[in-house]
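Example 9 (inverse folding). The structure is encoded as follows.
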């Protein structure tokens, strides 16, 4: 049986359109550059980052818990400048999804986990509002993937039934959760394989 027609596209950002905003590799580079104990920093990160991504901490408050709980030889501005610079675009992937949107007149909504300041930096820096019609970001809606409620809320925001939407994400678990509530799902690993998988979608 052929899948129902997709009218709305939910897209992750980090790992699909851009590098991760503040992933493990970035934290390791930060620890090296600023001469921090990576193991301790990473433990603190995992204890509090979910709270930041859900919009319950500012970036300054998150960094107070992560790094600036003691006096440092560098400033918070130095550290934030490094964090923001870690975001890089996958220009060809962004261009592909812009073309797909125009070709099929899709409603394109971001469904991503990100803290507010990083999210807003990435939207502005890489002009993501040229692709997206809206942002169901964890920092705005107070849900994080893999909570199925973020996808249900995204359907409400997009005014679409789950079966008429598809979620594209680099994390297989998040694709599975989207499918569990009726969305079509596609795991993105690289642009060429995504282009091939997209060919089978009924737009």
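The amino acid assigned to each position is listed next.
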């Amino acid at each position: 049986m052929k899948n129902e027609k997709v009218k709305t596209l939910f897209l992750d950002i980090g790992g699909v359109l851009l590098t991760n905003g503040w992933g493990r590799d970035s934290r390791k580079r930060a620890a090296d550059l600023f001469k921090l104990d990576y193991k301790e920093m990473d433990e603190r990160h995992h204890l509090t980052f979910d709270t930041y991504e859900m919009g319950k901490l500012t970036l300054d408050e998150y960094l107070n818990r992560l790094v600036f709980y003691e006096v440092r030889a560098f400033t918070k501005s130095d550290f934030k400048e490094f964090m923001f610079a870690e975001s890089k675009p996958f220009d060809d992937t962004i261009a592909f999804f812009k073309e797909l949107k125009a070709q099929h007149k899709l409603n394109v909504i971001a469904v991503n986990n990100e803290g507010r300041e990083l999210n807003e930096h990435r939207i502005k820096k890489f002009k993501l509002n040229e692709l997206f019609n809206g942002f169901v970001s964890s920092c705005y809606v107070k849900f994080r993937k893999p909570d199925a409620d973020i996808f249900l809320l995204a359907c409400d925001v997009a005014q679409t039934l789950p079966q008429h939407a598809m979620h594209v994400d680099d994390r297989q678990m998040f694709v599975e959760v989207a499918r569990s509530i009726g969305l079509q799902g596609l795991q993105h690993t690289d642009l060429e394989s995504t282009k091939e998988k997209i060919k089978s979608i009924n737009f």
